[in-house]
Structures are given as structure tokens and as C-alpha cells.
Amino acid sequence: MTAPNKAGKRIGILTSGGDCAGLNAVIRAVVHRATGYGWQVLGIKEGTQGLLQRPVQYQTLDLGSVDGHMMRQGGTILGTTNRGDPFAYPMPDGTLKDRSDEIIGGYRELGLDALIGIGGDGSFAILHKLAQKGGFPMVGVPKTIDNDLGKTEVSVGYDTAVAVAVEALDRLQPTAASHHRVMVLEVMGRDAGHIALAAGIAGGADVILIPEIPYSIESIAAKIQSVRDSGRNFALVVVSEAVKTLEGTGVKKILQGGEKRYGGIGDYIGEKIADATGAETRVTVLGHVQRGSMPSPRDRLIASAFGVHAVDLIAEGRFNRMVAWSNRGVIDVPITEAIEHYSCVELDGALVKTARGLNISFGD
Amino acid sequence: MTAPNKAGKRIGILTSGGDCAGLNAVIRAVVHRATGYGWQVLGIKEGTQGLLQRPVQYQTLDLGSVDGHMMRQGGTILGTTNRGDPFAYPMPDGTLKDRSDEIIGGYRELGLDALIGIGGDGSFAILHKLAQKGGFPMVGVPKTIDNDLGKTEVSVGYDTAVAVAVEALDRLQPTAASHHRVMVLEVMGRDAGHIALAAGIAGGADVILIPEIPYSIESIAAKIQSVRDSGRNFALVVVSEAVKTLEGTGVKKILQGGEKRYGGIGDYIGEKIADATGAETRVTVLGHVQRGSMPSPRDRLIASAFGVHAVDLIAEGRFNRMVAWSNRGVIDVPITEAIEHYSCVELDGALVKTARGLNISFGD
Amino acid sequence: MTAPNKAGKRIGILTSGGDCAGLNAVIRAVVHRATGYGWQVLGIKEGTQGLLQRPVQYQTLDLGSVDGHMMRQGGTILGTTNRGDPFAYPMPDGTLKDRSDEIIGGYRELGLDALIGIGGDGSFAILHKLAQKGGFPMVGVPKTIDNDLGKTEVSVGYDTAVAVAVEALDRLQPTAASHHRVMVLEVMGRDAGHIALAAGIAGGADVILIPEIPYSIESIAAKIQSVRDSGRNFALVVVSEAVKTLEGTGVKKILQGGEKRYGGIGDYIGEKIADATGAETRVTVLGHVQRGSMPSPRDRLIASAFGVHAVDLIAEGRFNRMVAWSNRGVIDVPITEAIEHYSCVELDGALVKTARGLNISFGD
Amino acid sequence: MTAPNKAGKRIGILTSGGDCAGLNAVIRAVVHRATGYGWQVLGIKEGTQGLLQRPVQYQTLDLGSVDGHMMRQGGTILGTTNRGDPFAYPMPDGTLKDRSDEIIGGYRELGLDALIGIGGDGSFAILHKLAQKGGFPMVGVPKTIDNDLGKTEVSVGYDTAVAVAVEALDRLQPTAASHHRVMVLEVMGRDAGHIALAAGIAGGADVILIPEIPYSIESIAAKIQSVRDSGRNFALVVVSEAVKTLEGTGVKKILQGGEKRYGGIGDYIGEKIADATGAETRVTVLGHVQRGSMPSPRDRLIASAFGVHAVDLIAEGRFNRMVAWSNRGVIDVPITEAIEHYSCVELDGALVKTARGLNISFGD
Fold it and tell me: Which residues cross the membrane (chains A, B, C, D) (predicted)?
């Protein structure tokens, strides 16, 4: 590796964990801000995997790399991965091995002055541990379509995921009405109901099921009956994938013979509704289209603000922090706080209150 | 019922079978053309169901009914249904009953001079039989997202269904690339592969599986390996829901314990690909969003042309015909021919040739 | 008029001033919340015009009126108007007349218990004056694509207007790059630069001109030269319609011979840039498509929250207030404060800072 | 330049004239098909400009160059230009110079076996003349948003341009209805009315003005009055930019003081309608967003079929031909015929008939 750019700093950036819309806009903002400072930016490939391989896998990022259409694209030009905690890395022989020193070595090989990690709580926990052990400066940018990261009002990728889910409801409504059906839409959300809640309100749902609120089929059926009584012949139901079956288990356990996964909680709920109401019911599982969509304007705005601020934190020598959105602006918080604090749907928050005001049932 | 409009004709219109995008644009065009002739249009509710009920369920359609946003909406303002061949109608006690006379009676009660039926081959067969038995004039407008109706190049709803599938591929591509995944998209198409073929080409698929071309997993795996060899780290696979398993059965039989349906052929293919290639594979089943979307400009154009021509056929006293699209314009054909002639993907047609030219594999 | 609904209240709702996306979602939320209370909702047509006419122009709004597709549509089902301050109403003979008593009379004739006005600062000033004079309870819901209303972080319609402008930039970028052009996009914003600022950041603009920051052509030209120096062959420029010419006047005065309006400030800036840089320049004036688009998910969320809260204010007997968005939730403020307080772009706010961090030039 | 690839052919490809959606999909298809033959593809930059410069400006195109998102993007990765007939090339000193030999020299320098030119009639005329003079094999792929190229049913870029115009009408309709306005939309179309006609039908226009049909303001005003009489309070008017003023001149001559262009025919028509009907009228000039949009599925399909067939023509040694769309498939025609034959709107074609059936006025 050649000597670091003496005229300025050399910083690394990587994307880690599940991809989402807006990652490229963060990368672009980081490159623009760092270039403005006269720094060099190295984009590390495949999250920490790029630092594990030899030679280290990276690409130099300059203004030309991030021009034009790039910020408008979903995914991440750097690649990402969910595989492998480097402190207990799964080896081909089935054992787990601590490979953290290799990653720290990869970081050193690039001659970096600091690292920007774009990730969620899991990625931050690993990156923070690596930074502590390796003694290198690190700053985090929060991204997750689930929006369950603590200490930030919103994470990159959430707004777009909601928009894709709302668009699906916009499309299911006319076909539901034409056929007098109950349409069930299963949306993403590993542990929290944020996508389901926002999409359900904006998409005109009658029922929203989220893991934060226990439901009963009787309650859902009663709501669907009240919709019928009002003279309407269809209903829209949004279910977060994080919702459990009434038996308290995830749907995969129930439906899978062995390791195979067919269907999801949406299918389970759809069947229960059909049984309880006699309604013609159809289920749509939205899946990965929620991740790869062109980022919404708001995701691009937030991503851009985050990227600029992350570089500024490095310029100011303020490390181990996560940039965050609060009250219309960018702040930063200790990354350890963000890792520890989980954000599920607030039951007395504005959105739940709005949903109840719209006579949306949570099945409770 | 009051006497028919002596100043002109009174015609009925109904939508039958599965809904799709563009039905409202047909209805609007019919109302505009008939109003131009000074005729009256009655919209019958829920396909032939509206003629079965007493009082007959219908609404008068005038220019005000079809103004503004209506043509832009998916679904059908008249409602539709897949239920019930009136010649063998399923009764609550489980028996089948010939209720065709009731429907013909409903038609007579409205004092109609002719009926426009918007439907697919199944609906046309029933409507034609009713028209023959009842001795009333009937004209058909073809609609089906599957585009498998004979004697017309294209049916209403197909273009939009393709567009929704392409949009899904546009969204799956960046997330596939970010994670080095094989993304499988299952699209609609009851018996024919038209949606899969067009969407696969326009959406940049590497593999397209359609029922018209037998596949092997080895062949699919070889294609995915050749993509890897070219230096690309992801692949897109489109599967028509009409594709059978290698065992020659529909996937429902295999995956269902009893009558329940979990998953589809996409899940089956995804699992086989993962097993054969070791690739990380994800499956998306697009489902009903393909039906309810806002109609594409082309679907609105075709629907409008069909609606106008259907009314003109009545004006000219030319009945038992289906309007059709051929070589940039509207023609009409005997409806019996359309019912008899099924249109699957032509293996030596322009689209298959184009797909092969793009090195897309059909798994053969 | 029949007697008021004794079982509950009867409230009126109207939309006033320029239309925007999300108005129907407010109306829907009001009807849902009020119906939940057992109240009756009357929708007044064409803003205060409906109260001016005899018979008073209104429609009863129940759940059936707001079902289905309605919340997804742009515009307002009630109609709206910019015409006519009722305290100085333009009469056919050219004189101005105080017709406020007629409007108050219209309100009384409907037997209303309270009025919800959806509008901007101008509409609120008039409605508040009417409410004071007429002694009737009133609550305001803020809407304006310009987002320049004080005391609320965001108004209904803004998010969608930004989204439409960003989409235009997404489309102009590839054609700009293909032809090596400077593309100028003029966006709405009567007096403030909010749309231009947010759209410019999210849409990848190189230059953003807003009325809050004086510009010089030299500075813009220098930015475009620096883009060229970086190796990029095109540039995107966003101009708020509120920007003045360098001579300090609105562009209409300059370009219009008499009362006719051809072109706008975008044309002016485009010509100046072409002259100063020699670049091939093209101008797009986005216009009214920013108003009528399908509301974005965020606009629907905010609109829904506002509608519910507005009804709750009436239920609680808290009048002369405007609902507002603050820090992720709904609050309410005295409507007089909202009328008095104007919100232009904060020069030290997060968005301006982000834009500067991205090396976007404001022409200063 | 190194020796040509002996294992196969080396072909060049360039895009020429105004850009549009779908060009990248043609390029991708050419690369895929040629790579399948074992050939090499060189992409020439900026149309014929790349062959004029020394060193010749080009990039090698392989499968990696055209992977992933590229086919989904508007514009052309090769760049294009409208400048400069090489047989009469505008020199800096204001004279015109025959530089055709330089371009032929550039072609030779690359060691090409054939050239694929993607363009319109103007580009084809020049390319054909160059190919004749230089004695090199050439094949043309038709692209133009205007769809006015003879001998092909459709050209690349048209479907997307129509879709963008329809989307604009979808957005103008609600705001028109809310404010009781007449909305005028000016769409592209240099000499023919194809975009206006198709977009007007699919977008629900009441009036469509195209250069092929003379109009009178009286007739337009009568149509708007009949809309009012039917109880509707708004109207949509689509105007092709190719429409002339009533004085028979283009609007630029009228509105421009000198060489500057402010406004267009839309503004002229809007003003005339306002004067004749007293209606509140607003004008939107759609402009360049019609070119740069993400290509529609149909444009990608046609582009793909064209690209594959163009390579096949070279493989078969059939030159001086243009690929074309006819009756659901790809054919090819002598390029001289395509250059000579201009395609304007057929007055007795299916679309005009459909428009009249929908009671759309052409102002005649």
C-alpha cells in the first residue's frame, strides 16, 4: 500500500448487514464532504469481508465514482454481507474462529485514519468491538428498513421500505374492491412493527398487526364485520413479519417440515381470517422489493445529511459516535448507547394514536 | 323496469372473471361512445351475479360516472367474480343447479338491446352460451393479464401486469448485486408464460422459466455458473406460476398438507437452485399487486380502442364477436373462435428469439 | 336544513387556497374520527364559496364517501379556490364588497357546531376573521406545498411536491449526461425556497437557487466550471420560482410585454448560465404537476394525523388553534401565531449545511 | 490500434441525435448478441464526434459494461450529440467544412468490420452517406420519441415519452378538478403528433391538438362548453409542440424578440382558450423529462429485440438496412426507404378513430 495522503486524511467506508435504499447516497455524501476537505476515501468491499481478504478488497472513491445516477440506485455499490461475526467466524470445517486480528490487519494495511461504518445495531456492535481492540477511530451511520435502531428518529432505508409497502396497498385496494376480498399484506420488520404501522396508515389499512400489540382473531373478525356493516365490501390487512402465531411461535416453525421455509405469518393470518369470517382472502408477501427500490427523496436527504455529518465527526476528532436524526436535524450520540437501545413502536406515540383515530384495528 | 330508451338503444356492460388493470378504461370508452350515439348504458354488478339477483343489481352509467380519475384506477367499478357457472351453479346445499334462465330473465328485466361482456375465455364461453339460449345480442372485450386469449395480439391487463413484474425486477437487481444473491421472482400466468417472458427480457433476467419450455436444474445451474464466470456476482430468475415441478405436478400438490397453500413454484425452484449452485437464493412471489395496479398507458389505449369498437359492433348489428388487437389496430373476430383458440408462447416468436439472443436461459 | 344531529355534533370541513396532495387524506381522517365520535360531517364546496352561495353548497360525508381510493388521489374532492377575500369580495362591476355576513349566514344555515379549515396562512387569516366575527369555533389544518407556514415543521403537500421535483431531476440527469448539458429545473415555492432546497439535495443538484440567498452569475459559473474540472460533463441546477432576477424584480415584469406571462425565472437563469459558461443549457418549468400528484406516504401520514387531531381539538372544546407537526408528533398552536409567523429556509439549518457539505453551490 | 479480433468480428456502435429512453437497452442487447458470437464491441463516444477526434474516442464494451442497472437507465452511456453534419461541419470561424474523410479515417483506425448506428432519420441520412463514401457496412436501429420514422411501427423511446406525458395528465387532472381549471399540457413531437395523440387518449384529454389536423379556437371552445354542459368543471388539453399558431407560424417566431425562446405553443393555446371561454387556464410545458426517464418495459423489449436483430444482420452480411418493428416482431428494411419515408399521424388510423369515439376534439 502506498503512503497515506499527507495532504489530508485517508478514510475507509463500508456497508454492513442487510442492504437497503439510500446506502449509495450516504457513500456519495461522504465522498463529497471528504473530497471537500482534501481527503481520500477508500470503499471497502462486502462489509468487513473486504478487510478479511488478502489482498484487501477495496476501491478508491472520488467524485467521479459517485457522480450521476449512483445516488438514485438501491443497494450499495460496495456490496454488503450478513455473514460472519469476525470474533466467531464460521469456518469451512464448521468451527468458529476469532479472525478479528485479520480484519484489524486489513484496516492497518490500507493506512486508514478512520472508518465509517454504515450498518444496524448488530454491525455496530461488531465494528465497535473491532475499533476498540484495534485502537482505530470509527463513526457509525444508522441504516435499517426496520427503523428499530435506538437514539435516532429514523434510519436510512426505512422511508423507502414504507413507500414500497404503501404502493402495494394502493395496488391491492382496487382488486380487493373488485372481488370483495380481504387482502393481507405481509411486510418486513424483523422485530418491530414500524413499517407495518406507517404503511398501514398511509395505505388505508383496516387492520394492522404488529409484534408490539397482541392480537386475537376474534377482534380482527369483529373489525372486518364492522367494515361490512358500514357497507364496504373489502378490507386491507397489514401484518408485520415479526408477528407471532397465536401459539406464540414464529410461523416458520409451524409451517416448515424441516429447514425449508414456505410461506410466512401472512399466510397464517390470512387463513385464520378466512376461517373466522368466511371472507375470500388473498395473501401477498412483499419480500425483498422493499430493500432494493430506488431510494425515496427523504431517504436520500437523510442519507446525505448523515454522510456529511459523519465526515465532520472525523474532522473534529469525535469518534465512537453514531450520527442520528432528531427533530429535523442531524445530531450524534455515543455508538454504545445506540447499540444498547432498541426502538420498538411506542404504544402511546403519534402513529398509534392516529391509527386508532382512523378506526384501524390492531387486533387487540 | 321502465321502457327502453326509444331515442336509442339501451345496452348493458359487465366485467367477469379475475380483475385486471384497464377494465375501467373499457367501461369509460363504452359509455363515451354509446352516449355519443344517444344510447343508455347500464352497468351490471359483479359479472353475471348482478343479473341473478332480484332486484337485478346495476347502475346507470353516464358521462359523469366515468369522468376524471376513474379510468386511471385499477380494478372495476362494477365489481367482478370468478364464482359460478350459471349452467351449473353451486348451491348452498352443495348441489349444482342450472340458473341460466334466471340470468336471461335478469337481462330481459333490464330491457337491454345488447350486452358487452369484458372477460376471458371462460367468461366468454358462458356468456356466449347464455346469449345463444336467451337469444340476445352480445359482444366480447378480451381481458386477461395472462394474455393467453387466442385471436387477439393482446388483451387488456397484460401490459400493466408485465410492468409491475419489471418494476419488481428493477428493485430486486440492486439488492441481488449488493448481497451476491440469486433472486427468484414468481409471476402470474395461469397456463402460459407470456408475463414471465416479457418481464424477464425487459427486467434483465438471466433465466426465464415458462410452462411452454421444459427445464432442467442442471441447465439453470450451468447458466448461473456462466454468469459467475463472466465476473458478475448475482443473477435474476423469473418463474411463471404455471411452471410445473420436475415431477410434473403443480407445486401446490407437493407443498400442501391438505387443501392449504403455502408457497409456490418459485419457492421450489429457489430451493433447487440453492442446492445445485450453493448460491444464496431469495424468492419473491409477486401475487395480486399485478392485478390492481394503475393501468399502463398502453393498457388504457387498448382498452379505449376496444370499448369504442365494441359499441360500434352493436351499432352495426354485428354480434357474437370479440374485439381484438391486430397489427396496430382494432379488428373483430367470431367469439367462438376466440374461445376455442388458446394462445401460449410461440417458441419461434420474436420474444423467444430475442431472449435467446440476450443469452437468457430457458433452462432447456 | 334539518335539525342538527342531536346524538352528537355536526361539523363542517372545507379546503381553501391552492390545492395540493394530501387534502383528501385529511378529509378522510376527519370523517373517520368524527364518525367514531358519532358526529356528522358536512363537506363545504369550493372553500368559503360554498357558504356564499344559496343554497349553500355542501355534501354529507360519511365513511362510504371516503372509502377506497379517495385518500390516494391528489386534489380535493370538495374543490377549492383562490378567489375572493369575503371581506373585500370582487364583484362583477369591479367593486369590492364585504360579503362576510353571507358566509357566516351560510355557516349558520348548516347548523354547524364547528368548522375545520384546511388551508395556508392567507386562508387562515380570513377564516379566523370570519370565526371571530361570526362567533363560531374553528380549527385549522396546515397545507401548502411551499412549506412556509410558521409553527409547524411541515405542512400537508410539501413532501409530495418535493418528490415530484426529485423525480424530474432523476429524469433530467441521464439526458443531461448524454448531451453534456446544463439542465435548469424551475420548481414551485411562492416566497420560500424549501422545495428547491430539499429537491436539489435529494435530486443531486450542483446549484440550488433560493430566494433566501442572493446569487451571482459569476458564482454559478464558477461552480459549473469546477464540475467540468472534476471531469463531469453535465450539471443540474434547481431554481425556486421565488428567486428574483439580478435586477431585483420578478421575472414576469421583465419577460412580459403586458399582462401575458411567458416563461419564468428558470428561463432567465438558464440564459444567463449559457451566456456565462458557453454550456448548452435547457430549462424545464415543472408547474402544476407538483400539486396534483398522488400523495406520498409521508403526506398521507401527516394528513391523517392532522385530521384526527383536528377533530379531537373540537371534542375537547379547544378552538382557534392550528394542528402542527413537531418532533415526530402532532401538537397544536394558536392559529394567530401560525398566521403571523412565516417560515423561510433557515440559513444555518441542517439542510443548508448538508447542501454545503455536498459542495452544492447556492450561487453565493 | 491493434489488429482486429481474428477470432471474430469487431463492430462499432454509436448513438446519434437527441437522446431518449431505451438507448442503453439497445447497446446492452448488441453487446450480448455480439459476445455470444465471440465478437468484440467498441462503443464510440458522442455519435460521430468520437470518430472525428484524435485519438478516436471509444470504450470497449463487454458483458461487464452492460450488467445490472445499465439497461434501466435513461440516456446513453456513450453520449450523443445533435451537432454537426460532417459533410458540412460548422467550424469555429463560422465556415462549414467537409470532414467526412476524418470520420471515415476514424472508423478505419478502429479496425471495425461494421457499424451499428442508433438514430433517427437525420442521423441515418448522414451515416448512410458516410458508409457509402467510406465503403463500410452499416446497420441502423431506429430511435425517436416522436415516432415519426417511416417503415417501423414504433421506434425506441416513444413508449416512455408517452408514459411520462400520461403521468403528467394523471397529475394535472386532480388539480384541474379541484380548481375548475382548463389544464393545457404541451408535449414533445418535432413535426408529428404521435405523442400528443397517444398520451391524450390514455390520459383522458378532452382536446388534442396535433399538427396533422388544423384547429380553430371556436371548435376548442365549443368542446369545453360541451364538457361544462355535461356537468364537469374542468378540462384537459394536450398540445403537440409541432402545432403552429393560427397565423401559421411556429410560436417561437411570435414570442421571441430575437433568438431567445420563452414559452411555447402551449402558452399560446392556453391564452386563446382563456380568452374564448373565460375559463381559468394553466399551462405546463413538459420538456426534457420526456427524454431522460427510466425506459418503459415496452421500450426495453423493443430495444432488446432491435439490438439482437441488428447484430444478426451483420452476421448475415446484410447491410444498409434498418431494423424495424412490424406486427409483433422484428423485421428489417432498406435504410434508404426509412430515410425517405416520414410517418405522421394517420387520420383514418385506429388511434384517431378511438379518440373521436371518446368524443375527444381535435379542434377541427
Answer: none
